[in-house]
Fold:
Amino acid sequence: MKKTYDFVVIGAGVFGAWIARSLHQAGEEVALVDAYGPGNSRSSSGGETRVIRMGYGPDELYARWAQQSLPLWEELELQVDSELLHRTGVLWLSNDTDEYSKSMLEVFRRNRVHYQQLDAAAIRQRYPELKFDDVTWGLLEPESGLLMARRAVRLLVFQLEKSGVPCIHAHTLSPEGAGELRDIKTAAGESISGGHFVFACGPWLPKVFPALLKDLIFPTRQEIFFLGPPPGDNSFRPPRMPVWLNHQHPQIPYALPEIEGHGYKIAFDQHGPVIDPDSEERVVSTESIARLRAFLGKHVPRLAKSPILETRVCQYENTWNGDFLIDQHPDFKNVWLVGGGSGHGFKHGPAIGAYVTDVVLRGAAPEKRFLLASKQTVQARAVY
Ligand SMILES: Cc1cc2nc3c(=O)[nH]c(=O)nc-3n(C[C@H](O)[C@H](O)[C@H](O)COP(=O)(O)OP(=O)(O)OC[C@H]3O[C@@H](n4cnc5c(N)ncnc54)[C@H](O)[C@@H]3O)c2cc1C
Structure:
């Protein structure tokens, strides 16, 4: 007889994988399904590295979720016996008009997040590679850092498979009808049966549910560069170089130190054009390279002429303001939608897994900010 899982989780990115883990730990029979495989190069979780930071300006919800997630990443790291978390420190570059960073201080104090406040002279002295004339102070989160993203997702899914949660390689079709969904069909003509279905399809959510989500989640093209520091030079590696962000700069740059010889990662947090995650060519443009070189010449001059070792083109899956989408499908009582990571979701994987389990399995009250009803069609980013 055909197996019926308690939960079928569609999408083995960071959200789906942590949801599957949490449900499995709660004693549920779970199957994961992914069209391209966990941490694939089209997915938003398929990048080399992702920042984990506690700072969210005045926004306490995400600060707490990041705080809750950090030890769970560490727990996973021990279980899979592979380096997943580098506590390189995260440096916020700021200036006197920056209310966002000022409000972070209060949140950090209330939630006992360790931080150091640095003045401009201390920043210049500690981080001589960075040149930002208008930076007057900064905030260092010494215990934060970066996650080895693709590796973490793949190892998490392998671990789940070993403990009896299959990861089925299949492209599922959009569910039809209403009421209670009993199974989902795959493009290969098969079906997977379950009691509940969680669609954690990241940037594909608007393709899976076009009528509902095509105007509510915007997948935007984001380019990333890895630059090669000079030979034998440790200036761009930890401990001399932390992750840094400068959200006061119009290009919203951020950079991650060189890890595992992949180069110094730098990118801009501005939203690019809307793309299709299936068909987008993952090649950066010559205009973007020119913009990067101009930026480096001004702000990280020692890398201005360094070779680009690798590039990546990924996508954010933005909701209107950056808040996640976690809600029941309005037409199906046993279908859940989880996504809208909006360029900051990776670090929160463990907290999302726990939240979905609490809401779906234990009937916990949902957070209003995540509900479908709170989503709008305009783009007005408020969460960074
Ligand atoms: C360039 C870039 C930098 C970022 N930086 C950070 C950062 O520093 N810190 C941070 O916390 N976050 C960051 N993020 C955001 C974070 O990576 C994403 O929010 C997160 O990875 C989203 O995960 P997901 O599981 O929702 O989606 P995905 O990882 O995209 O997973 C969705 C999965 O669903 C599968 N799928 C889709 N449709 C179907 C279907 N019909 N059938 C079967 N499978 C299907 C796909 O194959 C895919 O594997 C960044 C994102 C990008 C692009």
Q: What stands out?
A: The CA atoms of residues 19 and 353 lie 4 Å apart. Residues 60-80 form the longest helix (21 residues). The two ends are 48 Å apart (CA to CA). The chain is about 25% helix and 25% strand.
